[in-house]
Amino acid sequence: MQKILVANRGEIALRVMRTAKEMGIKTVAVFSEADRNMPFVRYADEAVCIGPAPSSQSYLRADKIIQVAKETGADAIHPGYGFLSENASFSKAVADAGLIFIGPSARSIEMMGSKIAAKQAAKKFNVPMVPGTEDPIKDAAEAKTIASRIGYPILIKASAGGGGKGMRVVNNEEELEEQMRTAKSEAMSAFGDDAVFIEKYVGAPRHVEIQLVGDQHGNYVYLFERECSIQRRHQKLVEEAPSSCLTVDIRKAMGESAVAVARSCNYYGAGTVEFLVDENLNFYFLEMNTRLQVEHCVTEMITGIDLVKEQINVARGNKLSFSQDDLKINGHSLELRVCAEDPMNNFLPDTGKLEMYQPPKGPGVRVDDGYEQGQDIPIFYDPMIAKLVVHAATRDEAIDRLCRAIDEYHIKGIQTTLSFGKWAVRTEQFRSGNFDTKFIDKYFKPEYLVEENPEAEEIASLLAAEIWNSSKQKNVTATTSTIQVSNWKLRRR
Ligand code: MV4
Question: Can you give the pTM of this predicted structure?
Answer without folding.
Answer: 0.91
